[in-house]
Amino acid sequence: MSSYPYRIKSFGTKALLLEWPKNISPGLIREISAFGDFLIKNYLNQPKWEALPIYHSLTLISPEKEPDLAAVAEQINTAWQAFAGHKQKSGREWVLPVCYEGDFALDLEEVSNRLKLSPAELIALHCSVSYPVYGIGFLPGFVYLGGVPEALVLPRRESPRLRVPAGSVGLAGVQTGIYPQQSPGGWNIIGNCPIPLFDAQREPPCFIQIGDTVRFRAVSAAEHELHRIEGQVGIYDFSKRIAHDADK
To answer: pLDDT at position 192, please?
Structure first.
């Protein structure tokens, strides 16, 4: 049984929301994600529920029209007593290329001015961190990455865009993330990642999972185009390392 306390509450008529304390950490999200897998596999598999972990919560959605939520809550508590912890689920680190040049970096100059950093300093800071994956949504494959350096923390744009290009890399508060498809959005766009994050024909559709970490590697526009082609045909080499890591 885990030492993290939690509470259960109804979330509409077909779902339950499990909430843990708001001390967001990589260990907690790994715990929540692993517990969701454990719960679905061993307790809520007939019919199979859907488990959606993010930050410090887990949403459980029923395929039935009118599930007995009280009975399910009892199953959840039983499962929690039997749960061994997140050691059964380890994450992977992904290194993704990002071009911070020209039209790929719609807000880079404005963000640099607001944060009193040069573009080069901003890019170096953004690439200096291994970001934990705390959630996947609001679009299929949109990864919420936490742990942004304090010097890069800033609010969302006052006026959201109607069209943010696919692959756009943005900053918002203490988060950074990648838009997997063209979408409206209000994050500050500082670059673009050419690697497709979501493919409905793939299993799983999003290769990055909660509990993984992501690092960014700055590339030129020409490299971005090369990696875009590699990503489309599925041959991008994720073993490419960031320069200062390779030198260690």
So the answer is: 98
Tens of pLDDT, residues 85-111: 755 456 789 999 999 999 999 999 999
Is the residue at 2 inside a domain?
no
State the average pLDDT over residues 47-73.
Answer: 90
Three-state DSSP class for residue 98: strand
Same domain, 40 and 114: no
**Where does the pLDDT of residue 84 fall: very low under 50, low under 70, confident under 90, or very high at 90 and above?**
confident
- Per-residue pLDDT of 186-225, as tens digits, reads 999 999 999 999 988 888 889 998 889 999 999 999 999 9
- The number of domains in the chain is 2
Q: Which amino acid is at 79?
A: A
Q: What letters, b where the CB count within 10 A reaches 16 and e where it falls short, cover 66-79?
A: ebebeebbeebeeb
At residue 242, the pLDDT reads 60
Angle at 136 (CA atoms; ends 134, 142), nearest 5 degrees: 115
Domain housing 172? 93-246
Is the pTM here over 0.85, yes or no? no
Q: Is 181 exposed, middle or buried (0-12, 13-18, 19+ CB in 10 A)?
A: middle
DSSP labels for 178-238? E-SS-EEE-SEEEEE--S--B-TTSSSSBSS-TT-EEEEEEE-HHHHHHHHHHHHHT---T
Place of tokens 């498809």: 181
Are 142 and 230 members of one domain?
yes
- C-alpha pair distances (Å), 158 with each of 103, 135, 154: 20, 24, 11
Q: Give the CATH number of the domain where residue 205 resides.
A: 2.40.100.10
